[in-house]
Amino acid sequence: MTTRRVGRDVSVLGDALEAPGLGFIPVNSYVLHAREPVVVDTGLGLPDRDFLGALAEAIDPADVRWIWLTHPDRDHTGGIFALLEAAPQARVVTTFLGMGEMSTDRPLPMDRVHLLNPGQTLDVGDRSLTAFRPPLFDNPATVGFYDDRSRACFSSDCFGSPLPDADLAAGGDAGAVGPEELRAGQLLWASVDSPWASLVDREKFLATVRPVKEMDPEYVFSTHLPPASGLGLIARMIDTVGLAPGLDPFVGPDQRALEQMLAGFEPTALPMGGFPDGPRRH
């Protein structure tokens, strides 16, 4: 994981996962350095990740007051219970549905939950955060927010894109991606993450994009894209999201394709001593 400051008010905790055939998927969490600090999502739950260690490079976890859970998918909740223990004054911002979905795995402590719906605001001491549902999402509990003080839009999965390079995915800047490459990546991600968009009425969908345009954000902080800044770049990204209704849903490899891929490897043999010497490619 990488930790770095973007602008005056936001730290990015960057990570990435390789998705065979797609590239590297950024998996970001954020810290909004408000008077009452806000952690936005808590990363992956893989055993080799140290979310609290990365967070401590940006802020003392004990100082966190809010944990904004944009939705309860596993790539957003990896460090949430460790953070709740390390931040005894923090409360989890989520929806009724998000709280319910979390309860199917490990319930959130009810006295530490703050339920918030799109259109409502959260006072974090020196600013109010306005909740909204991003145009593209893969979970009905999704709620992002806009901070009009820093002009930052926290968009959850919306605006995501696979990237060809792990370092760019985990610690880069969206502006470093070529315009055509970013456009193609966003459209691919939309077809993977929000396949329902192919079924919707285009005009009704564009009505959900317009509020993001009206925010006129200076920054977009997506879970699955490096931080984006600059009005020109963000305007192009918003326009690309508006193309989602015309996409065909992504169809991944099937069992036959998996078997063909596995056939390219021999089973690992155990030589004398019992240590594997690795797969051999034909």
Low-confidence parts lasting 5 or more residues at pLDDT below 50?
A: 272-282
What is the general shape? globular
What's the total helix number?
8
Strand order of the largest sheet: 1-2-5-6-7-8-9
CA(first)-CA(last) distance:
34 Å
The H-and-E topology, N to C, reads as: EEEEEEHEHEHEEEEEHHHEEHH
Mean pLDDT across residues: 93
Overall structural class, as computed from helix and strand content, comes to alpha/beta
Our Rg estimate from Cα atoms comes to 20 Å
How much helix, percentage-wise, in residues? 25-40%
Tell me the strand percentage band. Answer: 15-25%
The strand count comes to 15
Instruction: Tell me about the largest β-sheet.
Output: 7 strands, mixed
